[in-house]
Amino acid sequence: VKGGYDHFMLKEIYEQPNAIKDTYRGRLLVKEGIIRMAGIDDNLDRFLNANRIIVVACGTSWHAGLVSEYIFEDLARIPVEVEYASEFRYRNPVITNKDVVIAISQSGETADTLAAIKLAKQHGAFVFGVCNVVGSSIAREADAGAYTHAGPEIGVASTKAFTTQITVLTLIALKLAKANGNISTSNYQYHLQELELIPEKVKKALESDKHILEVAKMYKDAKNCLYLGRGYNFPVALEGALKLKEISYIHAEGYPAAEMKHGPIALIDEQMPVFVIATKKGHYEKVVSNVQEIKARKGKIIGIVTEGDVDVKNLADHVIEVPDTLEALSPLLTTIPLQLLSYHIAVLLDKNVDQPRNLAKSVTVE
Ligand code: F6R
After folding, report:
1. How many CB atoms lie within 10 A of CB 49?
2. What per-residue confidence (pLDDT) applies to 366?
3. pTM over cut 0.95
4. For residue 235, how far is its CA from the centre of ligand 1 (angstroms)?
């Protein structure tokens, strides 16, 4: 069942090149310059006339929502709010019939997310579901939707669901950016081409696995870890920290790199591993100066960098390389080493990787 892998989580991490390909297959038509998604085409007016998009989700799916906020605003110029479903539903939120609500859920059964979309529908919002499980409650309750085609995700820690959610949301953002004229034809085409290359690049990123295991051995006994990223990679920092917490039970926090000086920098000493996502295109120089600040306080630095990086490599204790891509697509690559790192640390600590304590695969109670 585990296809020769020791755990479902590892199998699912390795399935990502194919899962992403399965998710864009038939939708991403690079030569034609078309993104084909019936759920969007059939409701294009709702999207194009929307005052804003409200994304509701929980956990890892919420992190995918945060990534999409950058893409929707940056490329399609549509205002986006990303909400924890549990907060949204009880906040007496302002929702109108000009809002589009996107609900993201791997299982399609998360109680809070389901309740949030029921509330949004009562207020006349148009609800679009991004689910992995076909025929699930959220998929059925939504007005329209697009499935991720990740295949069954068994490991409790979400991996391929996350990258395929980002894939679907990227397709939607690009499609809307084209439809509302906020992206140039050449930039649109460039994103399409680069998205098609992502599965091969994920494969490449997976090749660092042995090196990541060595890094994991060095930090497995840490009591706390910090994850930093900026822009598109800020949500990846949150997701990296969540993955470590949930399967290795090590306390970890994700932060936007620039927020460090507003508090978390006080935590940094020689005991503190800091995982810094510092890819070439996303505010690179600024992240490098954050890395210098960590080094000055003797923190241990593990950089997630673009292939061929020099500046972070010179400062960091370790670097893990990922292939170069467009900034908007970089979360699909930078996530990979952080998943592997959490996996290896949890295995080294002899934790139950696929079924961590206190957690359930689908949270059907609030
Ligand atoms: C993290 C994880 C959870 C889920 C969350 C939402 O690895 O598995 O945080 O992401 O419970 O679940 P779905 O996406 O099924 O709504």
Report:
1. 10
2. 87
3. yes
4. 15
CA–chain centroid gap for 20, Å, is 13
Atom 9 of ligand 1: nearest residue by CA position? 59
CA-CA distances (angstroms) from residue 145 to 50, 68, 130, 160, 162? 16, 16, 6, 19, 17
What SS3 class is residue 275?
strand
Q: Which residues, 6+ apart, have CB-to-CB distance to 354 below 8 Å?
A: 7, 8, 9, 154, 155, 156
pLDDT for 51-63, tens place per residue?
Answer: 999 999 999 999 9
Residue ranges for the chain with pLDDT beneath 70: none
Separation between Cα atoms, residue 199 and residue 194, nearest integer Å: 10
Q: Give, for ligand 1, the residue of 13, 56, 58 to mutate: max count of ligand atoms closer than 8 Å to Cβ.
A: 58
Q: How far is CA 279 from CA 185, 303, 309, 324, in A?
A: 25, 9, 8, 8
Question: Which among 208, 226, 240, 214 is positioned nearest to 321, based on CA atoms?
Answer: 208
Token readout for 169 is: 């949301």
Atom number of ligand 1 nearest to Cα 113: 16
